[in-house]
Write a structure and sequence with these properties.
The chain is of the alpha/beta class. The protein has 15 helices and seven strands. The chain folds into two domains: about 210 residues, Vaccinia Virus protein VP39 (Rossmann fold), CATH 3.40.50.150; about 100 residues, DNA polymerase, domain 1, CATH 1.10.150. The chain has a seven-stranded mixed beta sheet with strand order 3-2-1-4-5-7-6, sandwiched between helices. It is globular and about 60 Å long. The mean pLDDT is about 90.
Amino acid sequence: MTESRDTADRHTPVMLARCLELLAPALEVPGAVLVDSTLGMGGHTEAVLRAFPRVRVVGLDRDPQALELAGRRLAPFGDRFTGVHAVYDDIADVVHTRLGLGSVQAVLMDLGVSSLQLDEVERGFSYAQDAPLDMRMDPTTGPTAADVVNTYDERELVRILREYGEERYAQRIARNIVAFRERVPMTRTGELVQILRASIPAATRKTGGHPGKRTFQALRIEVNRELESLERALPASIEVLAVGGRIVVEAYQSLEDRLVKRAFARGATSSAPVDLPVEPETHKPYLRLVTRGAEEAGAAELESNPRSQSVRLRAAERLRPTPVHMRRREP
């Protein structure tokens, strides 16, 4: 087995056929460019390059290892693929400044932690095996999960666990983390899991899944500033779309999906006052919702690809340029 095929076999893209179907009208435009904002191991990108022989794909990822593996996998496509080390909220800089493009025809975002990161034990994303308490999507920069649990005060830990993990036992967990680190700094995922098991009642553990699920999600989101990046990335991604272009987003938890829903609804709703007799052209919606609400994976995919269980897919099409009064302004 070649290295590129081994990389492909490690990850099955979620709702791949539906993504291609939703992107097709935009990618059939001559000279079409797709930005895969969450390249990962390149599964979605490879499928796009095969299905649309004239399309060029720009793949963004903050993880250098993912870029390297995907680059090898996609090397046969030559200059039709360009990999860029960047977080998805840098999409405007990548498209306009680094690549000199005025706009693109499509944007794809497959959010959440990648199979690569979960599979690499030493990255510390998984609560199933003991590893360094890291959780950085870009392991070359920024604070780790160990930095968070060892330096944040108890109140801030409670906030993170509640907001990002929706953890009902946040107060108890935070208190026990602080008590642990007063004796010795916490450095391993196994140490954290032990605290979580002691903090969450046995009855809840039996029915609520692994006790580490919510806390690990919360720490990962905090370490990588995921929601802050996504909140900036969504309007920026819409702005780089040409008229007629499409954006498809796959979210895996309610906090992400809520941000996607809000950004799409903002563009698909008239901004005119409700009492105006005639809607001004500058207040008409600049997006059209392509999906009806959030779509979920079908039964066959749920059986064959466990990662698809929590996916919520939304798509929108650009109808016209964003009205000036609706454009986000950087502080």
